[in-house]
Design brief:
OB fold (Dihydrolipoamide Acetyltransferase, E2P); two-stranded antiparallel ribbon; 1 helix
């Protein structure tokens, strides 16, 4: 069995833009910053920031467009995927991206409803709604947004 999965909590570092592929599928790409803090051997506080390229597809790209913005905090589960293309100068280029599989919004751009307890998976057939009491599956058509 193979496994390609990781988890991060971080903040979106740029304004979001929902785009469509030539065949009409929604897609959104952005980067998330994560910080690592530690104290070095001379007791000086240190910080290292990593930037991760993220790609959202389909309904989740629409949800992100509606509820997230620059500096929004997210927990995401993802897999790495490397894509390649030929640049205009004829050289082969590669980019490794995080392909989202599960996301929990830790804050949002709407204050009217707390989204901190909701999570969405990349399964277009169902969306999970998490609560402390129980976890139930609802269909995409039941979501009011």
């Amino acid at each position: 069995m193979d496994l390609n999965k990781a988890q991060i909590i971080g903040r979106i570092t740029q304004d979001l833009e929902l785009k469509q592929t030539p065949n009409g599928q929604n897609v959104m790409s952005f980067s998330i910053a994560t910080n690592r803090n530690w104290t070095d051997s001379s007791w000086m506080k240190q910080e290292q920031v990593e930037f991760h390229n993220v790609v959202l597809w389909g309904k989740l790209a629409e949800i992100a467009d509606k509820y997230l913005n620059k500096w929004s905090k997210l927990f995401i589960e993802w897999r790495l995927q490397t894509r390649s293309w030929e640049a205009q100068d004829g050289t082969k280029r590669y980019k490794t991206e995080i392909v989202w599989e599960n996301m929990i919004m830790l804050d949002s751009k709407t204050d009217s409803e707390s989204l901190s307890s909701k999570s969405w998976t990349n399964n277009s057939a169902a969306v999970k709604k998490s609560s402390p009491k129980a976890e139930e599956e609802i269909s995409i058509e039941d979501i009011p947004f």
